[in-house]
């Protein structure tokens, strides 16, 4: 006796499982498309910011301000390139014979899309005043992006001039003061 099992008895349930799997796959595909779109937008923003950074002038690039020290007969001066800084962003302090220079600048820029960039610049320099400079008369000025620090040099006391005699013995050798006293 042969048993007959109708094939159609399993069919409605397997069809329901296939429909559920198909819906789940469609939902996952939509999620992947949205993720890919977001990644494309992010890549576009990063590429634009990279190009903007490459096109920025080199003066904006981070660098330490250069300093040129000059000493002539009557003055001492130091010139520091600070073209990116305003007087309000600069500080000059004198501590004894040292001059401490610093500059600090913060800038935040926001784009139309809502992204923003933040730039922070800071530098510090220390100068030692020479011994012959009067630190009480130190002055500084800012002109065309150059901070100039100046001080007059002290006049050195005049030293009287005299001729020092050279003594010698017969052999032509110079004797010290003690050897001459012994003779």
Automatic annotation (TrEMBL):
Q: Which Pfam families match?
A: HSP20
Q: Which UniProt keywords apply?
A: Stress response
Record's keyword annotation contains S-adenosyl-L-methionine: no
Q: Does the keyword Signal apply?
A: no
Q: Where are the transmembrane segments?
A: none
The SHSP domain, residue ranges: 58-169
Q: Give the UniProt family note.
A: Belongs to the small heat shock protein (HSP20) family.
Q: What is this protein called?
A: HSPBB protein
This chain's source organism reads Polypterus senegalus (Senegal bichir)
